Amino acid sequence: MGLNVLVVGAVALGPKVACRVKRLLPSAQITMIEKDCRFSYGGCGIPYFVSGDVQNIEGLCSTSAHTLRDELFFETAKGVAIRPRTEAVAINRKAKTVTVRDLRNGSDTTELPYDKLVLATGAEPMVPPIPGADLPGVSVVSNLEHAAYIKEKIARGDVNRAVVIGAGAIGLEMAEALADMWEVETTLVEMADQLLPQAIGPDMSLIVQHHMTAKGIAVRLSDVVTRIIGDPETGVTAVETRTTRIPCDMVILAVGVRPNGRLAAEAGLAVGRHGGVIVDQRLRTSDPDIYAGGDCIEMPHLVSGERVPMPLGSLANRQGRVIGTNIAGGQARFDGTVGSFCIKVFDMGIAKAGLTARQAAEAGFDPVYSVVAQADRAHFYPSHAIMYVKLIADRATRRVLGIEALGPNGDAVKARVDAVAALLPYRADVAAVCNLEVAYAPPFASAMDIVNNAANVLDNILMGYNDPIDVTEFVERFKEGQTKVVDVRGAPESKKFREKYGEDRWINIPQNELAGRIAEVPKDQPVCLICDTGPRSYEAQRILQANGIATTKNIQGGYGMLSRTNPDF
Amino acid sequence: MGLNVLVVGAVALGPKVACRVKRLLPSAQITMIEKDCRFSYGGCGIPYFVSGDVQNIEGLCSTSAHTLRDELFFETAKGVAIRPRTEAVAINRKAKTVTVRDLRNGSDTTELPYDKLVLATGAEPMVPPIPGADLPGVSVVSNLEHAAYIKEKIARGDVNRAVVIGAGAIGLEMAEALADMWEVETTLVEMADQLLPQAIGPDMSLIVQHHMTAKGIAVRLSDVVTRIIGDPETGVTAVETRTTRIPCDMVILAVGVRPNGRLAAEAGLAVGRHGGVIVDQRLRTSDPDIYAGGDCIEMPHLVSGERVPMPLGSLANRQGRVIGTNIAGGQARFDGTVGSFCIKVFDMGIAKAGLTARQAAEAGFDPVYSVVAQADRAHFYPSHAIMYVKLIADRATRRVLGIEALGPNGDAVKARVDAVAALLPYRADVAAVCNLEVAYAPPFASAMDIVNNAANVLDNILMGYNDPIDVTEFVERFKEGQTKVVDVRGAPESKKFREKYGEDRWINIPQNELAGRIAEVPKDQPVCLICDTGPRSYEAQRILQANGIATTKNIQGGYGMLSRTNPDF
């Protein structure tokens, strides 16, 4: 008899562990149990199945060679047994068995023995404690059953108006799927005052928000759903928030997930403050014969140092390999996460790694950041487009804490974030990103690439050469009459603003004329400097500083950032 | 009087230094001299100007805000003086002056004093010592004059057939520019036995070669140009190689560049074995008042440890900022290069960082590599395309030495290479790439991304689980009848090959049936295993090993790699 490995949960991490162990240790006997009838699927593909990008549910359950990953596949191709519709009820660590219930025939339980046990119990979607959350037409999005339910209902033509609750990744992806492909009138409701509050800063999120609004999604921020209204027979008819009532035929709950650590906790294994199983670098729980990984664990955040859940299929896969190696007698490690993230929202790619400025402050850092607008390839190359990068560092140590990026070319956005993400575990400082050797050719990058420039600007800010103001703060101050603008672009670019806001509030002095026109810079009020994307206003600020005017603020990301975050400015 | 800074050379690094110093130290007096009449241009954009992607030469000489970077621009916007058509003849380090010659009025020389001198003398294109290299219609591609000459000649309709000598980046880009936009019948001649010999391995280069051939470029490898034939009045008519004669109206010489360290050497500054100026981490030469950077220096290669020239506009820009900071009293460093590189060749993006396997062996490592074919995003996401990644590590230390990648989406290719490039200075090992936290969402990546899988495969090879064979070596062995193939795909995919090579040489046993059909595996000859892209043949190899058959070889990158490198196989 070979090693007996029991895997609880068969979506992402479970199958990875099972197949890896079997490859390394062919004598092992491996059984996966899964409470659902579907298993080994790409859960992150659900929004693309709902939208129709992925036509059949089998597309999410097949290998890249188009083989369906069903029970026969696991048995014959992988040598792994799988028991779907089987729930783990309890772990008996002393006896080294798991009590399981066969959900197909009711309440019968049996004991499955193990030498090594793997907990791949995933996460549970949170359901807000509001009336009506159980009405027909209200659904979370956490497995293929939900996906099939939602898509069937839409495909039948039953859904004209939908409300998506929660503006994290799944909320945004589902909103797009509904509105874009099915032309469902979609409202997105979020408690926080911005989209993607865990992923990006408020300035970057404004760009996403305007993009979604332009695509027809109604976005309601800082609002809380209090009730879902409808009939237990015919289903949901409206969502009531603190401020309004939104008629709808479908409600998608996407308010987040919680690690499913119940089984572990009940067995006396260590569980963290988020409810996730606690593991070491080998991904062993507090019982050395029990491993855990994927959405059900907490892991070290390599920037903040805190233990966090990070429910991503990518991490589950990498952790699965580590567990498989270790069960087979190897010495693989998983040290933690830097929180890399990306998402496509209509025609925009958004990515981040590390901490946002707010998260950095919460973690005890003193965050300073740059915001840079620049072409995603050589500005003379025809297909270039402006992208936006925000780079965050700790003031005292200059350690890079995070990066956020967005733009029309998601691969180009991701390229910049992935390169900086790779540095984060090494506690790299800003200078490392100034010199970060991203590959260069005009069709793919600038000679001084946006990611280098983001670091250069941040370095200038940390050195006190560049005295920046956030575009959001600028807009507030300007609207309240607390600052004037010196626009250092040419006369044509500044014309619209001079006419709208008056020549005395929006003063035009082209940067190349500034040295000779210092006297025209207002002294009666603070001054903010603006150009297209930032370099000329920085140059202007240096000229003013050299001439004894040290109080100006340089608008980060320039007019590019202003126009994208405040299109009606 | 402020600090007097003299900059010799005003293309990429020179202007960056000048402007940076002026911003940090407004009191500085900065003069750039440039022997050509054009300056501050994007030299890497020349192929795109020739092709017509960039319409006017001014496009390469303008800022992203469309301002021409002429003498007035540098004077008024940057506060920097520039003297074009002025050549530095000698450095008098004791007197701290540079003897310069005004090329507009002949031989007059004057002495320009400096407090700090910057050498940005660039590189010189190599011209092969063959008869006819000076004929009309023969041109190197190293400045805008060459670019204008080439484009004018083509635009006049004078060029029907061209020969490009040298298959490095510039050779490939120029070949594309000529053939794609102008439909010039183009032949590429290269001395080495592969395209891009400095950048990628022979297997990867075969894919590029077939792509270029399919686009109409005639590729002649392992051939040497012995003579260029033509008339001193009417110009070139043919290129003669060791093996053939190619009629043509234009010849592009793209055989490489050499650091221009003459001025430095003559002044007694330390110069390396490649002829480049030797600098320290502050980019100071052996004279602390003289800095150098860009194409004229040698810099540490952070993987090989050797001092190498790395003539790239991107490095020149980053080094320019470092020099500017240091001249202004700061403490910036440039530690070296990891040799990041990318190029677009028609509809293909190619990128690399670190060392190729050959370069690694030359540098004293014991290189082992994986080759992985995988979709560049989730395989169920509609717009996915297969890309190829080669990951190279040192056998004993498992240190990652290099990565090569190519595919139809250049941004996606670059994303993978840039992320690994970021790790190279930290001497990361293969495990770091197994767990490399590239951002994941189905539109942009796989849950187990290709870059992670490349490391997983390499780890399996290093552990002895995966016993690989290079596709090139396999083809040789198979053609010589030294190996049989067990094709572990389904019957339909293997049909063509069974018919072509015979059922006894190309045996089909689907992977999921292999465990029960071990007896059918040939024992009389070595066996190579193949599937679509590699995972199933690996799985098959493990099954065979578990059944006592330990001699099979697994074809790296599977049929994907075989079909792309050997389309007529």
UniProtKB/TrEMBL annotation, chains A, B:
The keyword Hydrolase does not apply. Transmembrane segments: none annotated. GO terms for molecular function: oxidoreductase activity. Signal peptide: none annotated. Residues 507-566 form the Rhodanese domain. Keywords: FAD, Flavoprotein, Oxidoreductase, Redox-active center. Pfam families: Pyr_redox_2, Pyr_redox_dim, Rhodanese. PANTHER family: NAD(P)H SULFUR OXIDOREDUCTASE (COA-DEPENDENT), PYRIDINE NUCLEOTIDE-DISULFIDE OXIDOREDUCTASE DOMAIN-CONTAINING. This is FAD-dependent oxidoreductase. It comes from Desulfatitalea alkaliphila.
